[in-house]
Design a protein that fits this description.
Blueprint (H helix, E strand, L loop, with lengths): L3 H12 L5 H8 L3 H9 L21 H10 L11 H11 L8 H19 L12 E12 L5 E11 L4 E7 L4 H15 L1 E2 L2 E4 L6 E4 L5 E3 L1 H10 L2 E4 L9 H14 L9 H15 L11 H11 L1 E2 L9 E6 L5 E4 L2 E4 L8 E6 L3 E5 L5 E6 L7 E2 L3 H9 L8 H4 L3 H8 L3 H15 L4 H13 L5 H12 L25 H5 L8
């Protein structure tokens, strides 16, 4: 068939310019039958021809392949047929009927898998998102810590599908304390609470999945819901698309707010900067409604709940027993307490970023940053140093002494009992305001300047932490006059003793 431009040209020559068919043939170069055909054509509907079925040497084996692939739907994903495995089975089980190469089998298996898995997908209905509702999800990201290492962490995003506004907060993990703290931070920032929030079936909220839509929620999550009075909804199993707005936002924030990879020294400070970044992003136009996101978010806020003026305290409280060194294991990590609590029953109180060791009266023994990982340790030396300073002679026989940094071990090992006591007292003073790394630096600084007594180490520490610029030793020029040495003679002073002095 000719192109529509060619057909219109033929008709224009005949109908508008009134040329003969012979002249049209001369101008276009088409045969008489072609010109006549398109001059007489009145129906320009596009014809629909059924596809021609091609015959393949693989046709006799296709029903067998189809059944293998259908059976795969019940098998684990990693134990399903590849095209190569299909070909190998055909070679083994149907060698006389197999008349094609691997490539032909690969083409067919690829086509058939798409057909089968497409048929398994359920149609998705467009979802309606009224103002005042929210969705919540976690997402991974990477950052550079204060040691210069790249590490992974979690980002909690709360999105508002009606306006497409979203806020995010970062945490070391995705436990219940992180989930609730992130939500509370966002509630307090916007001054309102969404009336309905959609969640995935995350373990920090759902303790048990029952039949159908039955779920048993965790006690902490139910208390949080009751405190802020929002309704919680949960996605159907394997239906994460139901909260597609927040999933899109998780990726959008990662691409736009975490590229290049940020250096993060303080999570709380960075979280405050994320609020600013999210509100700056909301000044852009909504992708469909063609007005600003921040304007639409005002409609969201109007439909939200009034926030409870009483802040909800978010923590986990669990009983523990300390080991011989008064350390306690929590969440696969080790935290110190105080030597006096060795082999004692204590409580661990944990928030999203802190861990407190409490005695049986819930008094704080020690506070730590919360560790995220496995086999990590947070050691607070203050109570252990205090104990060792009161018993310096027994210091080298304690486990705590051998856990001290190398430079402090070497320094203390060279001191007498009084020197050990003074050195430990200086170390105790430093650790009241700073960490062990600062104490290591102070000792190294003092030794590099040729002083090793405890007072000088303490002076070096104050120099390092005062913010005063360290002065380099003055180098004298070669034109400085050398002075003769002078030796004192006290003989004349001594001769006065025994003489009577008149007044």
């Amino acid at each position: 068939m000719l192109s529509m431009d060619d057909i219109k040209y033929i008709k224009r020559l005949y109908e508008k310019e009134e040329l003969s068919i012979r002249e049209i043939m001369r101008r276009t170069g088409y045969h008489y039958e072609t010109v006549r055909k398109y001059l007489d054509m009145e129906d320009f509907n596009e014809p629909m021809y059924p596809p021609k079925e091609s015959v393949s040497l693989l046709d006799p084996l296709k029903p067998i392949i189809d059944q293998w692939l259908l059976d795969d739907l019940k098998a684990p994903r990693k134990q399903r047929h590849t095209a190569k495995r299909v070909f190998e089975r055909l070679q083994e089980e149907y060698p006389e009927q197999l008349e094609v190469k691997l490539r032909t089998v690969q083409y067919y298996v690829s086509y058939k898998k798409k057909e089968i898995y497409k048929s398994q997908q359920k149609a998705r209905l467009p979802l309606y998102h009224p103002p005042g509702e929210a969705q919540v999800d976690f997402g991974h990201f990477s950052y550079i810590n204060n040691s210069g290492d790249m590490v992974d962490a979690l980002k909690l995003t709360v999105s508002f599908p009606y306006s497409n506004q979203a806020y995010c907060q970062i945490f070391g993990g995705e436990n219940q304390q992180c989930l609730l703290q992130g939500m509370r931070n966002i509630f307090e920032h916007i001054g309102k609470v969404p009336n309905r929030i959609l969640f995935d079936n995350l373990s920090s909220a759902v303790a048990h999945m029952g039949n159908g839509h039955n779920r048993t929620l965790t006690d902490g999550f139910e208390r949080f819901m009751a405190h802020y009075k929002f309704e919680a909804a949960f996605c159907n199993g394997a239906a994460g698309w139901e909260k597609g707005n927040v999933e899109n936002k998780v990726g959008y924030e990662r691409r736009n707010m975490f590229v290049p990879i940020p250096t993060i020294l303080d999570f709380n400070q960075f979280n405050q900067s994320l609020f600013i970044a999210c509100e700056k992003d909301a000044k852009r136009e909504h992708y469909a409604k063609k007005i600003s996101i921040e304007s639409l978010f005002q409609e969201d806020l109007q439909e939200m709940l009034t926030i409870n003026p009483v802040a909800y305290e978010i923590f986990l409280l669990e009983p523990r027993k300390t080991d011989n060194y008064a350390k306690v294991t929590f969440d696969n990590n080790l935290y110190s307490s105080s030597p006096r609590y060795a082999k004692e029953n204590v409580y661990v109180k944990a928030s999203s970023d802190k861990v407190w060791i409490l005695n049986d009266s819930y008094e704080v023994i020690m506070e730590h940053p919360r560790l995220y990982g496995n086999g990590l340790e947070s050691m607070k030396w203050l109570p252990y140093i205090d104990l060792m300073s009161r018993r310096p002679a027994a210091m080298k026989y304690t486990e705590f002494y051998h856990q001290l940094p190398d430079n402090w071990q070497k320094y203390l090992s060279k001191q007498n009992a009084d020197g050990k006591r003074k050195g430990l007292t200086s170390l105790y003073t430093m650790l009241q305001k700073h960490d062990m790394r600062t104490a290591e630096d102070a000792l190294a600084f003092a030794i590099s300047n040729g002083v090793k007594d405890a007072d000088s180490i303490l002076a070096a520490y104050r120099t390092l932490t005062s913010g005063v610029q360290q002065m380099q030793p003055m180098q004298l020029g070669c034109n400085v006059i050398s002075m003769p040495s002078f030796t004192t003679n006290n003989n004349k002073y001594d001769s006065l003793f025994g003489q009577e002095v008149s007044v």
